[in-house]
Specification:
Length: 198
Amino acid sequence: MKREFLQNFKVGDQALPKEIIDAIMDENGRDIEAAKKPFADYEAVKAQLQAAKDGLEAFKGVDVDKLQGKIQELTGQLADKDREWQDKLDGMAFDGRIKDAITAAKGRNAKAIAALLDVDALRASKNQETDIRAAPEALKKDNGYLFESETPPPYSNGTGTNGGGHIFRFFRKKRKNLLQSSCSGVVYSRDVGIRPTI
Protein backbone atom coordinates (compact mmCIF):
# COMPACT_ATOMS: atom_id res chain seq x y z
CA MET A 1 0.00 0.00 0.00
CA LYS A 2 1.28 3.43 -0.92
CA ARG A 3 0.82 6.71 0.94
CA GLU A 4 -0.51 8.44 -2.21
CA PHE A 5 -3.37 5.95 -2.36
CA LEU A 6 -4.48 6.92 1.16
CA GLN A 7 -4.02 10.63 0.51
CA ASN A 8 -6.28 10.39 -2.55
CA PHE A 9 -8.78 8.24 -0.68
CA LYS A 10 -11.81 10.27 0.41
CA VAL A 11 -14.51 9.50 2.86
CA GLY A 12 -17.42 11.51 1.68
CA ASP A 13 -15.96 14.77 0.41
CA GLN A 14 -13.09 14.86 2.89
CA ALA A 15 -9.58 13.39 2.57
CA LEU A 16 -8.24 11.25 5.38
CA PRO A 17 -6.36 13.21 8.09
CA LYS A 18 -2.55 12.84 8.21
CA GLU A 19 -2.62 11.12 11.64
CA ILE A 20 -4.87 8.36 10.34
CA ILE A 21 -2.72 7.89 7.20
CA ASP A 22 0.42 7.63 9.38
CA ALA A 23 -1.26 5.07 11.68
CA ILE A 24 -2.42 2.97 8.72
CA MET A 25 1.07 3.10 7.09
CA ASP A 26 2.77 2.08 10.37
CA GLU A 27 0.45 -0.89 10.79
CA ASN A 28 0.97 -1.89 7.16
CA GLY A 29 4.76 -1.69 7.64
CA ARG A 30 4.60 -4.02 10.67
CA ASP A 31 2.51 -6.51 8.70
CA ILE A 32 4.99 -6.49 5.81
CA GLU A 33 7.98 -7.02 8.15
CA ALA A 34 6.17 -9.90 9.90
CA ALA A 35 5.47 -11.51 6.52
CA LYS A 36 9.13 -11.11 5.43
CA LYS A 37 10.60 -12.50 8.65
CA PRO A 38 10.36 -16.23 7.77
CA PHE A 39 12.23 -15.48 4.53
CA ALA A 40 14.88 -13.17 6.04
CA ASP A 41 17.68 -15.76 5.78
CA TYR A 42 16.69 -16.85 2.26
CA GLU A 43 19.96 -15.63 0.71
CA ALA A 44 22.05 -17.37 3.40
CA VAL A 45 20.15 -20.63 2.90
CA LYS A 46 20.58 -20.29 -0.84
CA ALA A 47 24.36 -19.84 -0.43
CA GLN A 48 24.54 -22.86 1.90
CA LEU A 49 22.65 -24.98 -0.61
CA GLN A 50 25.04 -23.96 -3.38
CA ALA A 51 28.07 -24.79 -1.16
CA ALA A 52 26.57 -28.22 -0.41
CA LYS A 53 26.01 -28.86 -4.12
CA ASP A 54 29.61 -27.86 -4.88
CA GLY A 55 30.84 -30.17 -2.09
CA LEU A 56 28.86 -33.09 -3.49
CA GLU A 57 30.30 -32.44 -6.96
CA ALA A 58 33.78 -33.05 -5.53
CA PHE A 59 32.71 -36.57 -4.45
CA LYS A 60 31.36 -37.62 -7.83
CA GLY A 61 33.03 -40.84 -8.91
CA VAL A 62 34.41 -41.62 -5.43
CA ASP A 63 34.26 -45.24 -4.32
CA VAL A 64 32.48 -45.08 -0.95
CA ASP A 65 33.68 -48.52 0.19
CA LYS A 66 37.30 -47.60 -0.57
CA LEU A 67 36.86 -44.31 1.28
CA GLN A 68 35.42 -46.08 4.33
CA GLY A 69 38.31 -48.56 4.28
CA LYS A 70 40.80 -45.68 4.19
CA ILE A 71 39.00 -44.01 7.13
CA GLN A 72 39.19 -47.25 9.13
CA GLU A 73 42.88 -47.65 8.29
CA LEU A 74 43.68 -44.08 9.40
CA THR A 75 41.62 -44.52 12.56
CA GLY A 76 43.61 -47.68 13.38
CA GLN A 77 46.92 -45.89 12.77
CA LEU A 78 45.81 -43.04 15.03
CA ALA A 79 44.86 -45.51 17.77
CA ASP A 80 48.27 -47.22 17.41
CA LYS A 81 50.05 -43.87 17.78
CA ASP A 82 47.95 -43.06 20.85
CA ARG A 83 48.92 -46.41 22.42
CA GLU A 84 52.59 -45.85 21.52
CA TRP A 85 52.64 -42.40 23.15
CA GLN A 86 50.78 -43.67 26.20
CA ASP A 87 53.32 -46.50 26.56
CA LYS A 88 56.15 -43.95 26.37
CA LEU A 89 54.50 -41.76 29.01
CA ASP A 90 53.90 -44.78 31.26
CA GLY A 91 57.53 -45.83 30.81
CA MET A 92 58.78 -42.38 31.76
CA ALA A 93 56.57 -42.34 34.85
CA PHE A 94 57.78 -45.84 35.82
CA ASP A 95 61.44 -44.84 35.37
CA GLY A 96 60.79 -41.76 37.50
CA ARG A 97 59.34 -43.89 40.30
CA ILE A 98 62.37 -46.22 40.13
CA LYS A 99 64.75 -43.26 40.31
CA ASP A 100 62.82 -41.73 43.22
CA ALA A 101 62.98 -45.03 45.13
CA ILE A 102 66.74 -45.29 44.54
CA THR A 103 67.23 -41.70 45.69
CA ALA A 104 65.13 -42.37 48.80
CA ALA A 105 67.35 -45.38 49.56
CA LYS A 106 70.40 -43.08 49.19
CA GLY A 107 71.79 -44.81 46.13
CA ARG A 108 75.10 -43.52 44.81
CA ASN A 109 74.55 -44.30 41.12
CA ALA A 110 70.95 -44.63 39.95
CA LYS A 111 71.86 -46.17 36.58
CA ALA A 112 74.02 -48.89 38.13
CA ILE A 113 71.40 -49.73 40.74
CA ALA A 114 68.55 -49.74 38.18
CA ALA A 115 70.56 -52.18 36.04
CA LEU A 116 70.67 -54.63 38.95
CA LEU A 117 66.92 -54.42 39.64
CA ASP A 118 64.47 -56.84 38.01
CA VAL A 119 62.66 -54.10 36.11
CA ASP A 120 60.39 -56.49 34.17
CA ALA A 121 59.10 -58.06 37.40
CA LEU A 122 58.53 -54.60 38.89
CA ARG A 123 56.69 -53.44 35.75
CA ALA A 124 54.41 -56.52 35.88
CA SER A 125 53.84 -56.25 39.63
CA LYS A 126 50.29 -55.77 40.87
CA ASN A 127 51.46 -53.74 43.86
CA GLN A 128 53.98 -51.64 41.95
CA GLU A 129 54.47 -48.75 44.41
CA THR A 130 55.33 -50.99 47.36
CA ASP A 131 57.53 -53.32 45.29
CA ILE A 132 59.45 -50.42 43.74
CA ARG A 133 60.16 -48.95 47.19
CA ALA A 134 61.25 -52.37 48.54
CA ALA A 135 63.51 -53.34 45.62
CA PRO A 136 66.41 -50.92 46.37
CA GLU A 137 66.26 -51.85 50.05
CA ALA A 138 66.60 -55.55 49.19
CA LEU A 139 69.48 -54.76 46.83
CA LYS A 140 71.16 -52.74 49.58
CA LYS A 141 71.65 -55.93 51.65
CA ASP A 142 73.75 -57.64 48.96
CA ASN A 143 75.35 -54.59 47.34
CA GLY A 144 75.79 -52.10 50.14
CA TYR A 145 78.67 -50.36 48.36
CA LEU A 146 76.15 -48.86 45.91
CA PHE A 147 74.41 -46.99 48.70
CA GLU A 148 75.54 -44.32 51.13
CA SER A 149 75.96 -45.70 54.60
CA GLU A 150 74.37 -44.19 57.67
CA THR A 151 77.67 -43.98 59.57
CA PRO A 152 80.83 -42.48 58.09
CA PRO A 153 83.83 -44.78 57.53
CA PRO A 154 86.18 -45.04 60.52
CA TYR A 155 89.21 -42.77 60.77
CA SER A 156 92.28 -44.46 59.39
CA ASN A 157 95.43 -43.76 61.35
CA GLY A 158 98.70 -43.42 59.50
CA THR A 159 97.81 -40.70 57.06
CA GLY A 160 98.90 -37.14 57.62
CA THR A 161 102.27 -35.93 58.98
CA ASN A 162 103.20 -39.12 60.85
CA GLY A 163 103.53 -41.45 57.90
CA GLY A 164 104.72 -39.30 55.03
CA GLY A 165 105.34 -35.81 56.34
CA HIS A 166 109.08 -35.91 55.66
CA ILE A 167 108.40 -36.41 51.93
CA PHE A 168 106.22 -33.31 51.77
CA ARG A 169 108.82 -31.25 53.65
CA PHE A 170 111.53 -32.40 51.22
CA PHE A 171 109.52 -31.38 48.13
CA ARG A 172 108.45 -28.13 49.71
CA LYS A 173 112.13 -27.24 50.29
CA LYS A 174 113.09 -28.24 46.74
CA ARG A 175 110.22 -26.19 45.33
CA LYS A 176 111.33 -23.17 47.32
CA ASN A 177 114.90 -23.51 46.03
CA LEU A 178 113.61 -23.95 42.47
CA LEU A 179 111.44 -20.86 42.70
CA GLN A 180 114.28 -18.77 44.08
CA SER A 181 116.72 -19.83 41.40
CA SER A 182 114.15 -19.55 38.58
CA CYS A 183 113.58 -15.93 39.55
CA SER A 184 117.20 -15.25 38.66
CA GLY A 185 116.62 -16.87 35.29
CA VAL A 186 118.94 -19.85 35.79
CA VAL A 187 117.91 -23.24 37.08
CA TYR A 188 120.70 -25.38 38.46
CA SER A 189 120.49 -29.10 38.49
CA ARG A 190 121.23 -29.14 42.22
CA ASP A 191 118.04 -27.14 42.81
CA VAL A 192 115.81 -29.80 41.34
CA GLY A 193 117.68 -32.73 42.80
CA ILE A 194 119.33 -33.98 39.60
CA ARG A 195 122.99 -35.07 39.80
CA PRO A 196 125.10 -34.42 36.74
CA THR A 197 126.61 -37.51 35.16
CA ILE A 198 130.34 -37.56 34.53
